Amino acid sequence: MTKRFLLFAVASVLFFSTSCESKKEKKEEHAKFLVTSPIKMDTSITKDYVSQIHSIRHIELRALEKGYLKAIHVDEGQEVKKGQKMFNIMPNIYQADLQKASAESKVAEIELQNTQLLADGNVVSKNELAMAKANLDKANAEVSLAQTHLGFTSIRAPFDGIMDHLHVREGSLLDEGELLTTLSDNSKMWVYFNVPEAEYLDYIISSDKDVKKEVGLLLANNKEFNQKGIVETIEGEFNNETGNIAFRATFPNPDKILRHGETGSVLMTIPFKDALIIPQKATFEILDKKFVFVVDQNNVVKQREIFIGGEMPNLFVVTKGLTEKDKIILDGIRMVKDNQQIESEFISPKKVLSSLDLYTE
To answer: At 198, is the secondary structure helix, strand, or coil?
Structure first.
């Protein structure tokens, strides 16, 4: 009796399990997939490009004469004004040279006066008078040269700016041309960013290419800089290794937030006219290529590659692979296979967009 009961129980379990699986398969076979179509509209996307930030003027200050560094009048990170004295190199030798040249100039001047008197009395020739004038000119040139060398011992700021690290200390023996520090004019900043060749061509042949493009700047703390920049120049050659070309945007920097050598990302808004837009969740990726499932008139699923021209939050701009008339699976793309026949329910593209957190124009 017990044996019969066990056989009956096992048979009941198997029947119940088979019945559930049959119902589950039947339910899956009749599951409806949500489909939609691409929508064509005017929109814009914001692309970011890794950038390098440079001061509009960034120079090295070097010693123009050899000697001991007598005094440093500034400190690291200090803002300096144009003409402000920054360094002083021991001037003793150059002061002596100037005094010597000045004295020789006075001697030459006296000799010229005496020669002039003699020439007026026809005692000496005109050639001797000309020689005396030439000696005076030579002596005056030596004075000017000595003054220039003496001036090189006092190094002043060539423009308003912020100085960097000191490479020498007071008392150091300097060679001619030795680096003292660097000076940056941060009133405006040049921001360089690299643009791929295809995007460069789109930019250069656009109808508004002569209108200066306004761009933003995302800083390293993931916050946008409070000033807008203008794309002013494009370099003359492409980088053969990367296939990119450098753009340069100029940003005002009134609060001196930006410094030479910073990094960031340039944010450029690119308009799209009659762009074909689909939700990102309707796509999948295979080996760095994007695909969608297109549903034909017989509700048969076909896998199709698409090409993306831009990306927005939750959206892709499709440049090739789809038309407005195509129907694509919106949800459940992991549950279907190529050439599978399905049941579908169509949702209008506008309704799909309204359900997403999007920013389109």
So the answer is: helix
Taking each helix axis as running N to C, give the angle between helix 92-120 and helix 126-152, from 0 to 180 degrees, rounded to the nearest 10.
Answer: 160
Torsion angle in degrees (nearest 10) through CA of 144, 145, 146, 147: 50
| DSSP code of residue 213 | P
> Where are the alpha helices (H) located in 69-223, listed in sequence order?
92-120, 126-152, 197-204
pLDDT digits (tens, 9 = 90+) for 292-329: 999 998 899 999 999 998 888 889 999 899 999 999 99
Query: pLDDT tens digits for 154-205?
Result: 889 999 999 999 999 998 888 888 999 999 999 999 999 999 998 888 888 8
**Torsion, Cα of 12, 17, 21, 22 (10° steps):** 0
3-class DSSP state of 83: coil
Q: Find the helix or strand (DSSP H, E) in which 29 lies.
A: helix 2-29
Which tokens belong to 129? 């008078």
What is the 3-class SS of 280-309, one letter each residue? HHHCEEECCEEEEEEECCCCEEEEEEEEEE
User: CB of 107 within 8 A of CB of 89?
Assistant: no
The closest alpha carbon to 82, from 212, 183, 191, 196, belongs to 183
Neighbours of 112 (CB within 10 A): 19
User: Could you identify the residue written with the tokens 């020669």?
Assistant: 115
What distance in Å separates the CA atoms of residue 321 and residue 339, rounded to the nearest whole number? Answer: 18
CB-CB contact of 26 with 140 (8 Å): no
- Beta bridge partners, 216, equal 267
- DSSP 3-state helix, strand, coil percentages of the chain (rounded to 5)? 30, 40, 30
Q: Which residues contact 123 (CB under 8 A, 6 or more apart)?
A: none
Joined tokens for residue 132? 């005396």
- Count CB neighbours of 247 within 10 A: 24
Of the candidates 146, 58, 169, the one whose C-alpha atom is nearest the C-alpha of residue 97 is 146
CA distance linking residue 124 with residue 294, whole number of Å: 110
